[in-house]
Write a structure and sequence with these properties.
10 helices; mainly alpha; flat; single chain
Length: about 250
């Protein structure tokens, strides 16, 4: 084994040991949406990115030593600097997996939540009560966000201000804009929410179709690369061999 690789192996082993999960700690369950007027539950697992941030200097050093060990010579030091910088930047820009899952679940469950909210409003429920009913029934990130909206309305905050804040939410923005416009214009909130549910379902269907078409395009290139050698071997090579075999190159 190359002695230059020993520091790299030691640092990799240290990183693996630090990344191993420790003993699980029991945590008290977060308060529910109805709990004493407190804030709604927050998403669990928000610290999944913390081990990467804690090991960021060590992993950057491992990358630097790896670049130096693989390159060596006069280019070893520049390669180490570039490798360490790349690892540092990539780890710094890595997004928390819990945040990604929460955002995707918000986008997936929002049409269902809007449909349930429209059904509650059509049944004669008030917007505040309907928000709480849907939050309890749906749960998840959408339920948490709806419980937050209900909490602010229940505390006496101006509904126009509340829905303007919801309109700035990255995922719940369409709901905030639809209900806010209905409040400002005096239109039926139930009708606005019902129309929003139809729009969200159509948008989700269009996104699925667009994704399916993009998959067809992306699979065309690998299929072409796989079929081209077979076409050359089975079609072109026998034809060329037959042509040269029928020719008399020497008299």
């Amino acid at each position: 084994m190359n002695p230059a690789l020993l520091p790299v192996a030691a640092l990799v082993a240290a990183a693996v040991l630090l990344l191993l999960p420790g003993r699980p700690r029991t945590a008290s369950p977060p308060p529910g949406p109805r709990g004493g007027g407190g804030s709604p539950p927050t998403s669990a697992g928000a610290g999944e990115r913390a081990p990467l941030l804690r090991l960021r200097p060590l992993l950057a050093l491992v990358g630097a030593l790896g670049g130096w060990a693989l390159t060596g010579g006069p280019w070893g030091l520049p390669a180490a600097a570039v490798s360490g910088a790349v690892v540092w930047v990539v780890l710094g820009r890595a997004e928390d997996p819990a945040v990604v899952r929460r955002r995707e679940q918000l986008l997936d469950d929002l049409p269902v939540g809007v449909d349930l909210l429209a059904a509650c409003l059509d049944a004669g429920g008030s917007p505040e009560g309907s928000l709480l009913v849907v939050a309890d029934a749906l749960g998840g990130p959408v339920g948490e966000e709806l419980a937050r909206i209900h909490h602010r309305l229940d505390m006496g905050v101006d509904p126009a201000q509340v829905w303007r804040g919801v309109a700035e939410h990255p995922q719940l923005g369409p709901l905030g804009r639809a209900v806010g416009r209905a409040h400002e214009s005096g239109a039926s909130v139930s009708r606005a929410v019902r129309q929003l549910g139809v729009e969200l379902r159509e948008r989700a269907r269009a996104e699925v179709e667009t994704r399916a078409r993009s998959i067809e395009v992306k699979t065309a290139a690998p299929l072409g690369l796989c079929l081209l050698p077979a076409f050359v071997v089975l079609g072109v090579v026998p034809l060329v061999a037959g042509v040269f075999g029928s020719m008399r190159l020497f008299g």
